[in-house]
Amino acid sequence: MFALLSYFRPDTATAAGTLLAPVRWRPLEILFWLVAASLLWLAPSKVLLLNEIAILALFVLSLDLILGYAGIVSLGHGAFLGVGAYAAGLLGKHGFTDPVMGLLIAGAAAGLLGFVTSFLVLRGTDLTKLMVTLGVALILRELANKFGNITGGADGLTGVVMGPVLGLFEFDIFGKTAYGYSLTVLFILFYVARRLVNSPYGLMLRAIKGNSLRTGAMGVPTNHRLVTIYTIAAVYAGIAGALLAQTSQFVSLDVLDFHRSADALLILVLGGSGQLWGAVIGSIAFKIMYDYLAAITPQYWQFWLGLVLVLIVLFGKGGILGFVNSSREWLAHRLGKGAAK
Fold first, then answer.
1. Does residue 157 sit in helix, strand or coil?
2. What's the pLDDT tens digit per position in 183-235?
3. Which of 59, 205, 218, 219 is deepest in the core (most CB within 10 A)?
4. How far is CA 323 from CA 48, 159, 194, 208, in A?
C-alpha cells in the first residue's frame, strides 16, 4: 500500500495546480445543474430514470478521462464498474450499511485494480490494450460466476441493505433519495475532473495523447502520468458501480458484461469525447433514445438506435457537442459576414 501511495507522490506541484487552479463555470453549465437538481421536485415520476442517467454519466465520464484525454483505448472498462458494485454490495450485505463509506471503499477497490492492471494495459499497441482490458473484464466475470457462494453467481447478490445517506436521508421506493445521492456524487466528481483536466497535469495528458514519443523525449514521465489517470478513472468507475449497487440494493453478473463497456464507448462517441460534458450529454441522449425506441419498437429498437449512432458518427464529427459547437461557429461566421456587409 505504501508503495502504491509513493507512486503518486512525485507530482506535488501538479497536484497543487490541479486543486487550486480556478475554473470558471459558464452560465449554461450552472443552469444545467440547477435544472438537474430541480427535477427531483418537478419530475418525481422520472427520478428512477434520472438516477440511471446520473450513474451512467459518471461511468462514461470515467472512460472519457482515459480515452478522451489520455488516448487509452479500453473494451473492458466495465471491470471497474463491476468491482465497485460487488464491493459496495458485499459491504451492504454483511452489515456495513453506511452508503458514503461503502462508496469510498468500493472506489478504493476499483482504484487498486486499476493501478495493478495499468502496467499491463499500457504495454504495447492499441490492439494489445483492447485485448488486455477485455481479458481482465472477462476473467472477473468468470470469477464472479464461479464464486457464487460469495457473489450470488447467476442469481445475483441479494440482501444488500443500505442505511440513510449521512444518517439523514432514507432510501425510498420512489427513488428520490437515490437520485439526489447519485446526482450529488456526479456533480462532485465532475467538478474534480473538470479541475483535473484544466490543470497543467490535464494539459500534459493531452500532449501525451497527441504524441507520446515527443513528450517522452522532452523528459515527461509519460507512463507515470498514464498510470495515474488510469487509476483515477478506475476509482470513478468503481464509485459508479457502487452507486448502482446501493441504489438498486442488488448486484447481478450483468455489471461485468461486455455490453457495459461497449455501451460506454458508444455513448462517449455519441456525446463527444475529450470534453467531459460529452459523457453527460451522451448519457442523457442515449437513455432517452433507448427508452423511447424500446417503447415504440420493442423488437427493432436496437436497429434504430444503431442507425442513429451511425448517422451521428458520419455527419456529426465530435458527437453531439461537436455538432453543436460547429453549428455555433458556422452561425457566428454567417452573422459576422452579414454584419460586415
1. strand
2. 999 999 999 999 999 888 888 888 887 777 777 777 777 788 888 999 999 99
3. 59
4. 29, 45, 21, 26
Residue 47 grid coordinates: 427520478
**Residues contacting residue 213 through CB under 8 Å, at least 6 positions apart:** none
DSSP-derived letter for residue 25 is P
Phi, psi for residue 169 in degrees, rounded to 5: -110, 105
Distance from C-alpha of 239 to C-alpha of 234, rounded to nearest angstrom: 9
d(Cα 243, Cα 236) in Å, to the nearest integer? 11
CB-CB neighbours of 24 under 10 Å: 6
Beta strand extents in 112-179 (DSSP E only)? none
What is residue 337's predicted lDDT score, i.e. its pLDDT?
Answer: 59
Question: How far apart (Å, rounded) are the C-alpha atoms in residues 120 and 49?
Answer: 36
Mean pLDDT, the chain, whole residue set: 83
Pick among 3.40.50, 1.10.3210, 1.25.10, 1.10.3470: CATH of 2-340: 1.10.3470
Q: How many CB atoms lie within 10 A of CB 238?
A: 34
Domain boundaries, the chain: 2-340
What is the sign of the dihedral through the CA atoms of 19, 261, 215 and 226?
positive
Query: What pLDDT score was predicted for residue 338?
Result: 56
Tell me which residue of 175, 186, 187, 190 sits closest to 247, measured CA to CA: 175
| First-last CA distance in the chain | 67
* Below-70 pLDDT ranges, the chain: 1-23, 124, 316, 330, 333-334, 336-341
pTM for the predicted model, two decimal places: 0.87
